[in-house]
Amino acid sequence: MNSKPRLLAATTLVLTISPTAAFAHPTIFHTTPLMAGLAHPLSGLDHILAMVAVGMWAAQRGGRALWAFPAAFIGIMIVSGVAGMAGFALPMVEPGIAASVLVLGLLVASAAPLPVWAGSAAIAVFAAFHGNAHGLEAGHLHNAGLYALGFAVSTASLHAIGIGAGLATRSARMETALRAGGAGIALAGATLFFA
Question: Which of the pair, 2 or 76, is modelled with greater confidence?
Fold first, then answer.
């Protein structure tokens, strides 16, 4: 086993067994809007795992999915984030985020061959929950545009990490490691959802 699958497996294991306190979002009152936006997607393991999984699945699907999946997530996340900043709260945001981690992990674990339009639609539904959580936590900030820019940049970076991991595992042996990573993400999502 070479180092790439080991690193992916070790990272997945660490993320999976991390205490659920790591899923809490720290307060963002002490920082600038841009820094708060950059930090928010990185403040909860639930956001990190879902966004990396989007990139991993995009790489598995290849072709148009490489840009369509991240674009669907980021676009709807921004719209839902703006709605959250305006005070509109989706029902069951946290269970929706937990479900996104579970389902996106399963999609990677199974290398689900959904058409790009269907995958983009599923991703958009999950992005609405993530974006709304970002927006609801930013109601106090004076520059919503910079905050939205920050969380969009962090999200795109997490998607890029997932795409990089997916593209690095193109061989059959390494695809197994990527699928194992997806299974670890799904396990973390199940822990969140059913905890």
Answer: 76
* Token representation of residue 13: 């294991």
pTM of the model: 0.82
Structure tokens at 19: 């205490």
The domain in which residue 58 lies consists of 31-194
Whether 24 maps to a domain, the answer reads: no
- Our CA angle for 60, 3, 106, nearest 5°, is 30
Residue 133 covered by a domain: yes
Residue 16 domain flag: no
Q: Which residues contact 101 (CB under 8 A, 6 or more apart)?
A: 46, 49, 50, 53, 185, 186, 188, 189, 192, 193
For residues 101 and 188, the answer to whether their CB atoms sit within 8 Å is yes
In this structure, is residue 3 part of a structural domain?
Answer: no
**Measured distance CA(57)–CA(65) in Å, rounded:** 8
DSSP one-letter string for 33-82: HHHHHHHGGGS-HHHHHHHHHHHHHHHHH-TTHHHHHHHHHHHHHHHHHH
pLDDT value of residue 102: 96
